[in-house]
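The passage that follows is intended for readers who have already worked through the single-chain material. We present the inputs for a multi-component assembly, then the predicted structure in tokenized form, and finally a short commentary. You are encouraged to pause after the input and sketch how you expect the pieces to fit together before reading on.
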Amino acid sequence: MERSEVRSLYLLAVFLACAYTVPFLVGAWAGTVRFDERWLGNLATVVVAGVMQGGVYAMFALGLTLIFGVMRIINAAHGEMVMMGAYLTWVCFFYLGVDPLLSMVLTLPVAFLFGVAVQKLLLNAVVGQPELTALLITFDLGLTMIYTAELIFTTDFRAIPYAPGTVHLTRTIAVGQNKVISFVLAVVISTAVYLFLKLSRLGKAVRATALNAEVAMVCGVDVRRIYLITTGFGAALAAAGGALVSIQFGFNPETGVVYTLQAFAIIVLGGRGNYMGALIGGLMLAVLENLVSLMVPNGTAVVELAAYGLMIFVLLIRPGGLMGVKEG
Amino acid sequence: MDGCSFAVPRGKISGLIGPNGSGKTTTFNLLTGLATPDSGEVIYRGENLAGLKPYQIFRKGVTRTFQVTRIFREMTVLENMLSVTGLDVPDRVARERAAELIAFVNLTHLRAEYGGRLSYGQQKLLEFARALMTDPDLILLDEPAAGVNRTLLQHLLDHIHRLEERGKTILIVEHDMGVIMNHCERIFVLDGGVKVAEGPPAEIQRDERVLEAYFGRRRVAGRTGGRRGAGAPPSEASEI
Amino acid sequence: MTRGEHLRNLALLGTSAIALAILPHALSVYLRSFALFTMMYVVLALAWNIVSGFTGYTSFGHVAFYGIGAYASAILTADYGWHWLPTLGVGAVLAAAVGAVIGYPVLRLKGPYFAIAMLGTAEGTRVIATVWDSLTHGGLGISFPSAENSLETYDAMLTLMLVTIVVAHVVGHSRFGISLNAIREDEVAAEALGINATLYKLAAFVLSAVFPAVAGGIQAYKVLYIDPPSVFFVQITIAMALMAMLGGKGTVIGPILGAVLLYTAQELTWVNFPTAHLIAYGLFIVLVARFMPRGLVGFAIDRGWVRKGMVH
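Having made your guess, compare it with the prediction:
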């Protein structure tokens, strides 16, 4: 790495370290921090829960980074696709009585097809154009999805009660069962996708297209089809994220906006187009968010600011993220 | 660039040549603030310009054109010209000068046309005219002859000479050796980021190192081998 | 523009101003409201255009300034008993300050990242408004002491619109405007040609923050009640962008046209298709972005009906 790269990485590390101490400082000032065993146990639980949630975040961020990596398109509707996954799961659960995890067998392919449709109808035409056009289009797509969801489901919050028990990882750390299951599934799915990209012929075609679409075309790759598949996968990953979110948190049509912001923050932090980066970013963001909501008064509302702040600072300090992705 | 050092004579036309990738455009970037040197200085009128922002350097009287034209495509020719003058210059003065320069490059009939709709040669002319709007003292021209027909090129060169007569300093990057050898008083030759030669055209034409930079080293007369100058096509090298 | 054209534009503006000033007395309250909203969107679209159309830094978060103006007006009127008119000035200054502080770092980001950062800014402002309830009453919102003010607010909005049009016109047809366009076309080349891009971008950004803030202040007073979601409504952001784009980004007439057309269309669809209109709206946006990125004015320019360029 050249000098300025090393310097920016160093700065980023320093910034992140500061970012993690901020919740503690605020908490100390606001009196929400207590250094007794129970509170520390709480803290540990929250961190572990963060790691687990991070796995889910990483998974749907993976979808976003995949789309960006292959087509240089920023999908501003990604959060809405997560939300769509959550609602689809909810529908399967409440109207068909299907276990939310099992219903992924149904919802993921549907999401995949949705992604393909979006790509075919809206995005294929703008792949080469400046990224802003796609951003605008997907942003509006997201808005339309929100409106549609509001029409069908109203703005009431929904959630799926599932696996309500807790798992005791140690004496003091107890995490909800649903979180653990989600984490495991997220890891499984992400790994499956990762292996697919690394090992299968189609996966290699996708990666080739990401590196250089023209060359890939010359080598016989049907680039248009790859684009469709990529967005399909991206949407499916988002929907999987939605399914796993639906069993942990409440959601309504507008929560998608926050997921989009989180996904952006994650891929910026980790490095756009970088899969490992999505994982690391996801974990880091989720842990930070949990620390904030534990220790900062009004934490749950301010959590969004954490994602936003993280993203802005990374863009200013080291736009390539932790993994140092270059432009172009 | 790698430890390169040279002095451009004031009030003269100089040439900067070298094979592709030798660092000519990088030199221009360093001189105009588009790139910052890790070490070293850029002295202009006794002042070190290294580290200044491009617009500051421009305001001191240094201007340039680009290898691939960077005119403003969705703006008209007139707007391209007017975008350059500082806001402290009164409107009337700016417009007069713009009209003058547009006429000089024969683009008056196109002054209300979008820059992007001009032919390549016309774009180059526009860029040349635009660079002269503020009456700069140091003019860096990056391949001004490329894509321009012979008549207009002669016209351009006449103007360049007139600029020289008025005391302007001009540095030209070119691949067209006719332009370089016949119009420059001093030539600097780069290769791989290093200056390999410097001097008047007659010397440069005979200089071994220059030939080597362009065509590659000869081990044995008539056969080529060893390091090739960057960008030299293989067939040419084997014909030496 | 030639002198003749300047005079013509001035005459046009003058007559419309007079017509619009007399108008409200002849209209029903509903139509008065409609006219006010249309004028507000003209202001918003024009202001957005100053930064996003001219410099090319597309902001998806200008609603933040609108919200700041609304809250400034609300807090000062409801909690501190100010008369609402001076609160508009405070809102404007506040928005300018915030614009300068936020703009400086954020304008260093390119294209879509700037857009996303601004989106986050708008969200962030909303969150702050919700959380800082000692100042903003949080989710409860703020109520103004009520009053029949439809004429007052109409006149205020009309004045604001006229000022905005004049400013946008002056900026757009000046050499400052050309410099902004140059930044949009090729920022590196613009810098190399003496344009202090950092300063100019920031100036355009701050300028574009002021008008939405005043509009927000007037609007808040009109509806007499605000709370974070209503004021930081993401649809306002998208409306600004869409109107400017529909009419023609980077021109002066464009945003005006776009605002009038789009808002009218929106009202008509709302009246006739109350539930589906938002979806239709969303789809419409997508279609415009996809098929008509240069807007109506761009279309007219291509056909030769309108001259190219802003300065002749």
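Commentary: The mean pLDDT of chain A is 86. DSSP finds twelve helices and two strands in chain A. How closely did your sketch match?
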